[in-house]
Write a structure and sequence with these properties.
This protein has 222 residues and is of the alpha+beta class. The chain has helices spanning 9-23, 82-92, 143-153, 205-215; strands spanning 57-58, 62-64, 76-77, 115-118, 121-123, 135-137, 179-181, 184-186. The strands form 3 sheets. A 3-stranded antiparallel sheet has the order 1-2-3, with no helix packed on it. Strands 4-5-6 form a 3-stranded antiparallel sheet. The chain has a two-stranded antiparallel ribbon with strand order 7-8.
C-alpha cells in the first residue's frame, strides 16, 4: 500500500507557529510548544538509506513485515523517497534503523543546511523536501526538543567532530551559518564579529583562509 502521511503533534505545533507569523509578520517570532518527549529511549534519527523498516523483508518492489508485526500495513513499497518513508513509519508503526554514523550536535541552532535568518529562527533550503514546515523557531528548544523535532520531521543537526580536527572546505560558497545572498555572503544575526557582506567567490583559497581568520568565521568541515 502507498504510505499515507500522518500529521504529528510536533508538525501541528510548527504549523500553528507559521500561522502566527502569517497573521502578524512584523511581530516577534512565535514559540513552538512541542509535545512531551516520548518515553521510548530508542527514539533516534531514522536511517532512511535502508529500503525497508527494521526486520522487514525487501522483495524487490515491496517490503513485507516480520512475524509478530501487528500494525496496519500488510506491505510498504520498497525504495520510497525519505519523506514517504517517514510517513510510512508513522502510519504503519514500522521503525527504520537508527543513523549511528553521526552523533548530532544540538549546540548548533539549526538543522544541517538550514539558515538562521533571524536570531533563533531557522529556514529550510528552498529545494528541501519536507514533512514539517520550512521554518523553525529554536529560541526555547533544548537539545532534547531538537532531537524530537529531528525524529518527527526527518531532520538532522550537524555531526559532532569526535576529537578530530576540522578541515575547512574553502570551496564552499559561504562560511558555516552565513547566508548566501545574491553574489555574496552575509553574516547570521547571531554573528558578533566586525565583518559584513562579502563577495567571497572572487577570493582565492589563501585569501578566504585569511578572511575567515580575521573575521572569526569558519567554513564547513570536509
Amino acid at each position: 500500500m502507498n504510505a499515507i502521511e500522518e500529521v504529528s503533534e510536533a508538525q501541528q505545533a510548527v504549523e500553528k507557529a507559521e500561522a502566527e507569523v502569517v497573521k502578524n509578520p512584523n511581530g516577534a517570532a512565535p514559540t513552538i510548544n512541542l509535545p512531551p518527549l516520548p518515553a521510548d529511549p530508542e527514539e533516534c534519527t531514522p536511517d532512511f538509506a535502508a529500503a525497508c523498516p527494521d526486520g522487514w523483508t525487501d522483495n524487490g518492489s515491496v517490503c513485507r513485515p516480520h512475524e509478530g508485526y501487528s500494525g496496519a500495513c500488510k506491505q510498504i513499497e520498497s525504495g520510497l523517497p525519505d519523506i514517504a518513508k517517514a510517513a510510512a513509519a508513522s502510519y504503519c508503526q514500522a521503525k527504520w534503523g537508527c543513523n549511528l554514523e553521526c552523533e548530532q550536535d544540538y549546540s548548533f541552532p539549526c538543522p544541517s543546511s538550514w539558515t538562521e535568518v533571524h536570531a533563533g529562527l531557522c529556514v529550510a533550503p528552498s529545494d528541501a523536501i519536507l514533512i514539517c514546515e520550512a521554518q523553525l523557531d529554536v529560541v526555547n528548544l533544548s537539545a532534547d526538543d531538537k532531537r524530537r523535532v529531528g525524529v518527527e520531521c526527518n531532520l538532522q543537526w550537524p555531526c559532532k567532530r569526535s576529537g578530530s580536527v576540522c578541515q575547512q572546505n574553502f570551496a564552499a560558497k559561504c562560511p558555516a551559518g552565513w547566508i548566501e545572498t545574491g553574489a555574496g555572503c552575509a553574516p547570521p544575526p547571531t554573528y558578533t564579529g566586525e565583518c559584513g557582506f562579502e563577495q567571497l567567490a572572487k577570493l582565492t583559497r589563501g585569501q578566504k583562509e585569511a578572511w575567515a581568520a580575521s573575521c572569526g568565521a569558519s567554513f564547513p568541515c570536509l
